[in-house]
Amino acid sequence: MSTTGSGASGEVTAPYGSGASAQADAPRKRVRIHHLREMKERGEPWPMLTAYDMYTAQLFDEAGIPVLLVGDSAANNVFGYDTSLPVTVDELLPLVRAVTRSVERALVVADLPFGSYQLSPEQALETAVRFMKEGRAHAVKLEGGRRFTPHVEAITSAGVPVMGHIGFTPQSEHNLGGYRVQGRGSAGEELLADAVALQEAGAFSVVMEMVPAEVAKRVTHELHIPTIGIGAGSDCDAQVLVWQDMAGLRRGKAPRFVKRYADLAGVLSGAARAFADEVRRGEFPAADHAFH
Ligand SMILES: Nc1nc(=O)c2c([nH]1)NC[C@@H]1CN(c3ccc(C(=O)N[C@@H](CCC(=O)O)C(=O)O)cc3)CN21
Ligand SMILES: CC(C)C(=O)C(=O)O
Ligand SMILES: [Mg+2]
Q: Recorded GO terms, molecular function (predicted)?
């Protein structure tokens, strides 16, 4: 682990205590970006999940997930679009507000959607300000490497923390040629240069998506800010998954990097079918469910 960053003093006040024993009933202290840096310095990997609504935000917050991302992946996991591209700021803002209203500890990151920051650093800052003021987000995230360091600088200069995102960047899927691993071979050096540039521009962390594990490991060691992997191997400082993938709510073939920790699709589908059967058989409502 690199220790070149600041905040490496003994005054560590992690909101979940340290080590695997950190529990949901630990002190209810807000997660701050310096806590994430401190976890990197201590070599403690941390989890991040997406959340798009109140109940999931509350549950994940209580489960001790320190960072929640209101992803532009709401496009295909909430709104029913086929890709990330169509979702808008006006669609995402109410989801961000719902999540920030619902958490006590988690740091909430708002993902800037396609078209809301690429035009200029000024546009990027304007959009970031909307997510901070109207969404009450704690940080924003945007996709892209060296070409977007002016955008990152504009936002961080205004006092808003920025999470980067490199490797496979879904908003560029048409330019990248589909869902493909990025950073193989000599592109590994380019990826490292992008990561270093984002760090120098003031990003507080960087997501690496679908990157060879060895490349992600090297980037993680070179940076003093935390790296967050999705399909980037086990040596990143943190790991993120889309919650509907992690909990098995989404059907169909999942990307290779997904692990399913539950079968929510089976549970919910079973509940809906049982309800329907009981209504059709005249078994629901029973006397207990009615007012007399
Ligand atoms: N539910 C969900 N999970 C995600 O991880 C996710 C989203 N949605 N939406 C936005 C982006 C899109 N992402 C994706 C989507 C699909 C693959 C995928 O199909 N991967 C295949 C590789 C396919 C190929 O090589 O052609 C895999 O097996 O990993 C990967 C990332 C990641 N993000
Ligand atoms: C998968 C994560 C990193 C993301 O960008 C999203 O959910 O939109
Ligand atoms: Mg995203």
A: 3-methyl-2-oxobutanoate hydroxymethyltransferase activity; magnesium ion binding; methyltransferase activity
